């Protein structure tokens, strides 16, 4: 060997030794993901908090001994709700500057610490890639649909992968960037283009030949069933077998026809909707597969984080008016949509539908679902600390909804002065009393003063939430930046979509195409 090259050779050998010996040791130090059942994870959090016993949540079965309260005269044992425009030191908030710099940070801190949890500072970045671009039709409108995947950097913990699924659909013939409504739910190309029949026949003929070549016994089956085709046209993920009832077109069709775009984002691709998955998904990835601490984020905040990452992509899409992107969700996703709008100021508007406890409903309004229900069954939606308010026996004593430092009117107020549409259905039409329509309306009324302080308009009704009476069903309060409408169409926001579009268009100064 050339002696002049000896030092280089030795350094290469040393580097190889480090790779073979040291690097595997470093990888081995990464903790193995914990696999808990939901009950085990729930108990782990109780142990961390020093909770010995939780109160059972009220039952939705009216025949059960612990059935939920549906008597409005018994629904308010905890007033008053926290003062919206009074600092913790007792000083009244009278200016927008005091709200932004003092009161809003106080409220945000309480929600993060006690209710929804904190987004960690070390959440890894997301890289978006377009998997498919397709030219389709929604109704009679040509669109460009893109299926996307947001790959979360897992280099710090390769044992867990997170890939966010999102589909973006925009009108193909728009003359400029369009507003977009991001909707929590399933993703997928809405109306995938198909090969014409003659090309589909060629595909099936070639596939049959390949299959028969691999397994000759299949040739007899193809001969016996000559009409069989291995490949049939793809069905849209938004197509349903049963005929649609009379009424408005689907939300996607209405939005596209009005010149909007739609982004559909799948919450399950961000974080599982169960306690078993809390050590997986984005929460598990950041925690390296270990159980949460009491202030860690829950699924609602994780879904909201994912929506923010979807907005990151939309800000790079020239077809999207990124200053006018809204967030929408129904039921548990209505909760997530409200949390998203409250904590992500880049969203310009929100359609918050039938969100109930943990969403727009006042925690202190004891009607239908209660704090105790979320502290038990759906605890993983919330920060671990939220469980304290369902504790009957604990090292810190007993706590209930009256001990919460904040309530949902303050969550709605965090959305001000942006466009905030609170939607509910009527119980007679199928939206259950369990989600407490009246409690949601009371919270919306109580949030008005902040909208007005910031120069926006509220519902146009008196601010006294305790005496607030919901308007008649199908009669909306849609003049302000804060809006309310209760429809008669069940546990959905479908009957309110056209009202939301018209209201948002007006507030944005848009002329409908």
**Secondary structure tally, helices:** 13
Topology-level CATH name of the domain at 96-124 and 172-191 and 250-508: Rossmann fold
What would CATH call the architecture of the domain at 96-124 and 172-191 and 250-508?
3-Layer(aba) Sandwich
- CATH superfamily placement of the domain at 96-124 and 172-191 and 250-508: Alpha/Beta hydrolase fold, catalytic domain
Separation, N- and C-terminal Cα atoms: 79 Å
The class by helix and strand makeup works out as alpha/beta
The top-level CATH class of the domain at 96-124 and 172-191 and 250-508 is Alpha Beta
Q: How much β-strand is present in the residues? A: 15-25%
Number of strands: 11
Spans where pLDDT lies below 50 across 5 or more residues = 1-27, 239-245
Sheet with the most strands? Answer: 9 strands, mixed
Inertia-based shape: globular
Which percent range fits the helix content?
25-40%
Order of helices and strands: HHEHEEEEHHHEHHEHEHEHEHEH
Mean pLDDT: 91
Rg estimate, integer Å: 27 Å
Task: Write a structural description.
With 513 residues, the chain is of the alpha/beta class. It has a domain at 96-124 and 172-191 and 250-508: Alpha/Beta hydrolase fold, catalytic domain (Rossmann fold). It contains 13 helices and 11 strands. A 9-stranded mixed β-sheet has the order 2-3-4-6-5-7-8-10-11, with helices on both faces. Helix 4 (197-214) packs antiparallel against helix 5 and helix 8 packs across helix 9. The longest helix has 23 residues, at 6-28. The radius of gyration is 27 Å and the shape is globular.
